[in-house]
Design goal:
- It is a single chain.
- By secondary structure, this protein is of the alpha/beta class.
- The chain has one domain: TIM Barrel.
- The longest helix is centred in the first third of the chain and has 19 residues.
- The strands form 2 sheets. Strands 1, 2, 3, 4, 5, 7, 9 and 10 form an 8-stranded parallel β-sheet that branches.
- It contains 15 helices and 10 strands.
- 5'-deoxyadenosine binds next to loops.
- The site of 5'-deoxyadenosine (5AD) has 12 residues, from loops.
Length: 353
């Protein structure tokens, strides 16, 4: 038996392999790779069943004060027409999320100073009162005080990726932030009793398999309620323009499968970037560990202006089309649409141990 087979067996027996061992599994091909995907799909099925939770994502502002090297809406990109949705538009879109069967609405934007504690809490309160949906925010690093205010206004969950555990790479590509401020924010979210989601981009320029393995282990150590990861895709209007994809595309999927094996209870979305990688990308991720789908419900007219990476799918669609399309995908996978808010099962599961 090869070393990588042995690592997979130990992983399935509940051991956490070293970064070097995980890097070995990220190289898996052929039968071993199929076994890895099947094992991850089995764990997903055992812990989460057939339900795929729908989280409708509203990209409500593409204004951003930051200049991250990978991101298409960075403030220095002059080719972006900036927009902010009005309070009414955001509330109406959230009402659609409910109508279309989403248990959660995810509010995402650039790091836009207009949407501060005061404005965002007004929106959160309104959505909570009008829809009763679970609400997730994804608006960048915020102070503990702001996070407290969002929580009091009805926010249940928060997404903030750490992007990479390489301090050198993090510093280089985030001119406006430090790794410490991100991890501090993740810590604050945890102590404020949020359901916390984080993750990283797979295959950032210069990353080795060992670095991806370290990112997987770090995400696991964070003990997350939600883990969102996707391929890094070079945007032409950024300093990373032209950077290639990983030569072995299956590494993106193997990373998700390994995350599932190490984090049985975490909710894991099939992130949109997988569809930009290849047309069936999100479907494939749903078969190697993912249990959440985030249909884009942003009104059609704004979609082309919110391109963090190129080839983003569905930019010419509207929310209703995405809501219908997702049901077809789920049926095609012989799975079911999740009902209810789809809250974290991690805490419940831990408590029963
Ligand atoms: N490729 C892939 N993912 C990206 N993101 C931002 N830019 C890119 C890109 N070029 C991801 C980041 C961010 C999330 C909202 O989108 O991980 O946290
Ligand atoms: Fe907007 Fe990074 S470019 S937060």
């Amino acid at each position: 038996m090869t070393a990588a087979y042995e690592t997979l067996n130990r992983l399935l027996a509940g051991e956490t392999p070293s970064a070097a061992e995980l890097a070995g599994l990220l190289k898996a091909q052929g039968k071993l790779r199929e076994r890895l995907y099947a094992a991850a799909d089995q764990v997903r099925s055992d812990k989460h069943g057939a339900a795929i939770h729908l989280r409708g994502i509203i990209e409500f502002s593409n204004v951003c004060k930051n200049n991250c090297w990978y991101c298409g809406i960075r403030c220095d990109n002059p080719n972006v027409t900036r927009y902010r949705m009005s309070f009414d538009e955001i509330a109406e879109t959230a009402a659609n999320a409910r109508k279309w069967g989403c248990g959660t609405v995810v509010l995402q934007s650039g790091d836009d100073p207009f949407f501060n504690a005061e404005t965002l809490s007004k929106i959160l309160r309104r959505i909570k009162t009008e829809t009763g949906l679970a609400i997730t925010l994804s608006v960048g690093v915020r102070t503990r005080k702001e996070l407290e205010i969002f929580k009091a206004a009805g926010c249940d969950r928060y997404l903030l990726r750490f992007e990479t555990t390489s301090n050198a790479l993090f510093t280089a590509m985030h001119p406006d932030e430090s790794f410490e401020s991100r991890t501090q924010c993740l810590q604050d979210l945890r102590t404020l009793d949020y359901q916390v989601g984080s993750g990283f981009m797979i295959g950032l320029p210069g990353t080795t398999l060992e670095m991806i393995a370290n990112d997987i282990l770090f995400a696991t150590r964070l003990g997350l309620d939600m883990i969102g990861c996707g391929p890094f895709l070079a945007h032409p209007d950024t300093p990373f323009a032209g950077k290639p994809l990983l030569e072995d595309r299956s590494v993106y999927y193997k990373a998700i499968a390994l995350l599932r094996l190490l984090n049985p209870y975490a909710h894991m979305p099939a992130t949109t970037a997988f569809d930009a990688l290849e047309p069936e990308g999100r479907n494939l991720v749903l078969r190697c560990g993912a249990n959440v789908f985030m249909p884009n419900i942003t009104p059609g007219k704004y979609r082309s202006m919110y391109q963090l990476y190129p080839n983003k799918p569905c930019v010419d669609e509207d929310g209703a089309a995405c809501a219908i399309c997702v049901r077809g995908r789920i049926a095609g996978l012989q799975r079911e649409v999740g009902t209810g808010p789809g809250h974290s099962i991690r805490k419940t599961a831990d408590a029963s141990k």
